[in-house]
Write a structure and sequence with these properties.
The protein is built from four helices and 30 strands. With about 475 residues, the protein is of the alpha+beta class.
Length: about 475
């Protein structure tokens, strides 16, 4: 029974350990609902913000080195002066982004101070007392050198060359020896390239007006890496890093995103662009109004998947030979919307609310496809008014017959592939499906993962108990 209980406890402990390793390290980032605020500075393992590393001290237990000699090691961290920014260290930057000197940031260098305090308490040395019952300065320096080693200030090592509150007592039965009491310190200074364990550095940048996509370069004269920053609710870009003594450069740009669509223009993507064909000139303009504001009620569009969502609204006005037109008849114009960077979809649609010349309203659903390079969503229309770009994770509908045929074909292909795989051959027409997994931020609940891990470990423990019982 004791063995079974031990196995169960061991399984539960394993589960808790696995859960603990999945808990993200906290940071000086406050998350309340959908609100995210950041404060620059340092963060400890508990997520507490610190303006500097003051108070971060580690002190070991006393260690007996020799009879009459103990030592205690204390580790502290100190900041140095901030270096000037030198962007010449960046050999290349992404030319799609704009860079400003004001966006430069620098983190202070940090050094580790390891101070060993040696305490002598009647420590016996091979030196005789002088006439004034003290050891000579040369003798004291020799004692310290023997205990702590050489003094090397150039390499960051400093050793005291005198004792604090020294006391000397002659050894009664040996005049050539002396008992020495007192303290001295040896300090080793090491420049760090990473923050101490469990500490992180939060670097924040000023948001750039109109920008919704950023890149950060973390660099010094020896290295340069690019980082995609996180965005706080108020638009503040920030990164969390363990690096110290680095410089940072922020690049910004405006790209097509949910609620802020851009369209292909002659020179880069734009909120407004024109398309000309067969004597018609169409002007496409993004509308930033949110759903429900009266722009276009997508819920009135038929045949949309249940998970359909709006990526953005826009309007198209067309001028022709007779002025403004709302219907070009048999002449369809093709438009290209820059794919929103923050949307992943299986199917794209364009919904429109069209009002004809007599004032009759109709909701239409237009097919849309990705361009060959995957950067644009293309659609064509001959009726113009108000539009919405809609996306869905659901694949486009097919007829029942097409669905059955596809299912049968997939089954046959899978069977053939499995048969040929057994003989070491590969079917030429087979395809591989890749799945994209989005990384969730730390504010998402990890409780399902914790509970699943715990349940698996408990099941493992129960199985072990069952096998033990069956064996006995």
């Amino acid at each position: 029974m004791r063995l079974r209980l031990d196995k169960l406890v061991l399984s539960a402990g394993l589960a808790l350990a696995m859960v603990a390793t999945t808990i993200p390290v906290g940071a000086a980032i406050t998350k309340t609902g959908d609100t995210v605020t950041v404060a620059p500075g340092y963060m400890d393992a508990n997520g507490n913000a610190k303006d500097d590393l003051t108070g971060l001290t580690e002190t070991g237990d006393p260690v007996t080195v020799k009879t009459g000699l103990t030592s205690v090691t204390q580790i502290t961290y100190v900041e140095g002066a901030t270096d000037s920014v030198d962007v010449s260290y960046i050999s290349s930057k992404d030319s799609n982004y704009a860079y400003e000197t004001a966006a430069n940031k620098v983190s202070k260098p940090v050094s580790k101070l390891e101070t060993v305090t040696y305490t002598l308490d009647n420590y016996v040395v091979d030196y005789a007392l002088g006439g004034e019952e003290t050891l000579s300065e040369a003798n004291v320096k020799a004692i310290i050198k023997e205990i702590a080693g050489e003094t090397n200030v150039a390499s960051g090592i400093e050793v005291a060359t005198s004792l604090t509150s020294p006391e000397y007592v002659a050894v009664t039965d040996d005049a050539t020896k002396t008992k020495v009491s007192g303290t001295f310190k040896k300090t080793t200074k090491t420049a760090l390239t990473e923050l101490p364990s469990s500490y992180q550095n939060l670097i924040t940048f000023n948001s750039v007006e109109g920008a919704n996509d950023y890149i950060v370069y973390e660099y010094d004269k020896n290295s340069c890496v690019s980082i995609v920053p996180e965005l706080a609710t108020n638009g503040t870009p920030y990164i969390v890093t363990t690096s110290v003594g680095k410089s940072y450069l922020l690049g910004s740009r405006t790209v097509s995103a949910k609620g802020a669509l851009l369209f292909e223009a002659t020179n880069g993507d734009s909120k407004t662009t024109t398309v000309t064909n067969a004597g018609y000139t169409a002007t496409v303009t993004a509308v930033t109004d949110v759903a429900g504001s009266g722009v276009l009620d997508v819920s009135k569009v038929e045949d949309l998947p249940s998970d359909a969502a709006v990526a953005g609204y826009f309007t198209i006005t067309v001028a022709g030979g007779s002025g403004v037109v709302i219907d070009t008849g048999d002449t369809a114009l093709t438009f290209r919307i820059a794919k929103p960077k923050d949307v992943t979809a299986s199917t794209w649609y364009v919904a429109t609310l069209h009002t004809d010349s007599e004032g009759n309203e109709s909701y239409l659903l237009l097919p849309a496809t990705l361009s060959s390079d995957g950067n644009y969503i293309e659609f064509s229309t001959s009726k113009f008014s108000t539009f919405a770009l809609v996306y869905s994770a659901t694949a486009a509908d097919t007829t029942e017959e097409e669905t059955n045929n596809e299912t049968n074909n997939e089954t046959e292909t899978a069977t053939e592939a499995g048969t040929e795989a057994g003989t070491g051959t590969t079917t030429a027409g087979s395809s591989t499906t890749s799945t994209t997994t989005s990384t969730k931020t730390a504010d998402n609940s990890m409780m399902p993962l914790f509970m699943t891990t715990l349940l698996l470990a408990l099941c493992a423990g129960s199985l072990a108990i069952y096998k033990e019982k069956k064996t006995n």
